[in-house]
Amino acid sequence: MTSQKLLDMLNRAVAIELQAIIQYMWQHVQWKGLEHYAVSDGLEKTAIGEMKHAEKIAERLWYLGVKPTIQPAPIFVGNTLEEMLKFDVKAELEAIAMYKEIIELAQKEGDVATKKIFEEIEEDEEEHHDFFSSLLEK
To answer: Whole-prediction pTM value?
Structure first.
């Protein structure tokens, strides 16, 4: 049986994914400048990836008998590309840390399906982190 702690963490994960979807999509829409096309397209693709994560987690919650949240975690869009990317790196690091906790707890509880879902999502989040970090280095 899945613990309330794990269920709460899964709902927090949905909120984190909703935050990322909105944050990255608004950055995609708002960013203009020399690197507009490369950065903007990357933000859009990342937002769509986050949407798929939110859907997977919400489906898992629904299966476990819990209604997924519709409230995103706090959104930080930023005004400059550097500020946007710093917010995005921070968001990805927070998601990675939390998803590692979820994986560990799911393992302890014997929830193989949740563990597998979050291992896949965590791998994607690391790629997103790498994308944002690489842009910041430029």
So the answer is: 0.94
